[in-house]
């Protein structure tokens, strides 16, 4: 003997064994409401289930700047315009200037250690790249292992 339960969608009473949880509505509904929803989903245009990972529906990758593609192709990625060219040229120029002036590089000490600045708390401490010690910031404990190699 099944217990009669009221459907939350249509309000009709049905045996509890006829209820199922609908993933779209996120609630338990009776068999007739579930069939109606499935039929309406099949007949509605554009809502039919599609097979995923077909060659025409593969996810498209984000366009990469010309510097990341290795410079082998002179064809810019889709969506690339003159403004993107200017931004990339400015970034390359700024990186070259920083490398020449030494900005952004940690100063080396006489004993071979490097003055490192923690990225989280901005605490400065001496780091030994040969022994990879300390591999955590002494002040906040943020991992810094492998950053200097």
Structure explained in plain terms:
- The protein has 149 residues and is an alpha+beta fold.
- Among the domains are: 4-43, no CATH class; 103-149, no CATH class.
- It is built from 2 helices and 6 strands; from the N terminus they run E-E-E-E-H-H-E-E.
- It has helices spanning 31-43, 82-101, and strands at 4-6, 13-15, 20-22, 27-29, 114-117, 124-127.
- A two-stranded antiparallel ribbon has the order 1-2.
- Strand 5 and strand 6 (124-127) form a beta hairpin.
- It is elongated.
- It starts with a strand and ends in a 22-residue tail after the last strand.
- The mean pLDDT is 76.
Write the layout of secondary structure elements.
Elements: E1 4-6, E2 13-15, E3 20-22, E4 27-29, H1 31-43, H2 82-101, E5 114-117, E6 124-127
Antiparallel strand pairs: 1-2, 3-4, 5-6
Question: Which labels suit this protein?
Answer:
alpha+beta; 6 strands
Spatial strand order of the main sheet: 1-2
Write the H/E string, N to C.
EEEEHHEE
Q: Count the E strands.
A: 6
Largest sheet data: 2 strands, antiparallel
Tell me, briefly, the overall form. elongated
Q: Which regions are unreliable across 5 or more consecutive residues at pLDDT < 50?
A: none
State the share of residues found in helices, binned by percent: 10-25%
Radius of gyration: 31 Å
